[in-house]
Specification:
By secondary structure, this protein is α+β, with helices and mostly antiparallel strands. The protein has a single domain (6-94), classed as Alpha-Beta Plaits. The protein has helices at residues 19-27, 56-73, and strands spanning 6-14, 34-41, 46-53, 77-78, 87-93, 96-97, 100-101. The strands form 2 sheets. Strands 1, 2, 3, 4 and 5 form a 5-stranded antiparallel sheet that branches. The protein has a two-stranded antiparallel sheet with strand order 6-7. A hairpin with a 4-residue loop joins strand 2 (34-41) and strand 3.
Length: 105
């Protein structure tokens, strides 16, 4: 098994009455190339998703499926701001793991 080389992080908030529904939908979401995924609760209604991917290409290939999934769960989310909408996503190459540097910063 190869180690993931790319990751995405998405900050979002859930409506309190929709948390169970969101996690039911999320639990059924599968994408090729997505090695691991985590969600942390970062505040009262705030969450952060972290996905570890085989490669940047795997993430790019999965984007249409991820956007379709977002359309399914968008109604469970609070708007972060008019500029961002309901999510604040970022992605990039993994440059360090633990104390080990994997590539140039």
């Amino acid at each position: 098994m190869t180690a993931p080389t790319f990751m995405n992080v998405v900050r979002f908030q859930l409506k309190p009455e929709c948390v169970d529904q969101y996690f039911e939908f999320h639990g059924k979401f599968i994408c090729e190339g997505l090695k691991e995924r985590y969600i942390s609760k970062t505040g009262e209604d705030s969450y952060c998703f972290v996905g570890l991917w085989d490669s940047e290409e795997a993430l790019i290939t999965a984007r249409p499926k991820m956007l379709a999934h977002l359309d399914e769960v968008r109604g469970f989310m609070k708007e972060l701001s008019p500029e961002l909408g309901v999510t604040d996503p970022v992605s990039g190459t993994i440059v360090a793991h633990g104390n080990e540097q994997l590539s140039s910063y």
